[in-house]
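hiii so um. not sure if this is the right channel but i have a protein structure encoded as tokens and i wanna go backwards to a sequence. like what aa goes where. can anyone help
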């Protein structure tokens, strides 16, 4: 199943969630919450302002390399984008993608997983994991241009903010152009922050 079809299915489930009681972010509000990071090659909708931290990421070979996390923690809810730049490696490495997915799989019972490319030549994984504490982890892993992007949305099952965060992840190039090629439309362009 292509990433576009998976996104359509997930967005349809968002439409159903919009009719459920509780706070919901409207489409008019969503663009204001979009965080765009051209150097790290992603854009995403955080549920509130995020923070950043430098971390050390362990690769499938056991090497430790510097990485950056962008995150929101609200009570027990966590929304994280981990960006790992492999400066001297190939633009795409399936082993890095699978290692990151395996690390996520260890956190609970995998209820859904898909090996889905973001766009041709950009491998990815999408995971839906129920953790032992009853919380749901919606995660994805993608790689393009030497950048490994890992998203994690940990919240109560069915949480709208987690679904929106998971579905909003967008891989962009250094100029802010969406890497998801749309056959009949020009690619979206995001305004890079300076």
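sure thing!! here u go:
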């Amino acid at each position: 199943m292509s990433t576009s079809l998976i996104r359509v299915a997930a967005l349809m489930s968002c439409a159903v969630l919009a009719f459920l009681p509780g706070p919901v972010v409207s489409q008019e509000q969503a663009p204001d919450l979009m965080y765009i990071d051209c150097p790290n090659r992603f854009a995403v909708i955080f549920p509130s302002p995020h923070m950043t931290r430098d971390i050390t990421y362990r690769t499938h070979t056991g090497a430790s390399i510097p990485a950056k996390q962008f995150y929101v923690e609200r009570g027990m809810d966590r929304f994280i984008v981990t960006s790992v730049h492999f400066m001297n490696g190939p633009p795409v490495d399936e082993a890095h993608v699978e290692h990151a997915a395996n690390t996520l799989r260890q956190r609970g019972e995998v209820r859904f997983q898909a090996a889905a490319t973001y766009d041709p030549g950009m491998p990815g994984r999408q995971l839906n994991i129920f953790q032992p504490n009853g919380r749901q982890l919606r995660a994805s892993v993608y790689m393009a241009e030497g950048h490994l992007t890992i998203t994690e949305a940990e919240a109560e099952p069915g949480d709208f903010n987690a679904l929106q965060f998971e579905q909003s992840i967008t891989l962009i190039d250094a100029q802010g152009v969406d890497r998801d090629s749309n056959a009949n439309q020009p690619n979206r362009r995001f305004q890079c922050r300076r």
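oh and The longest helix spans residues 3-17.
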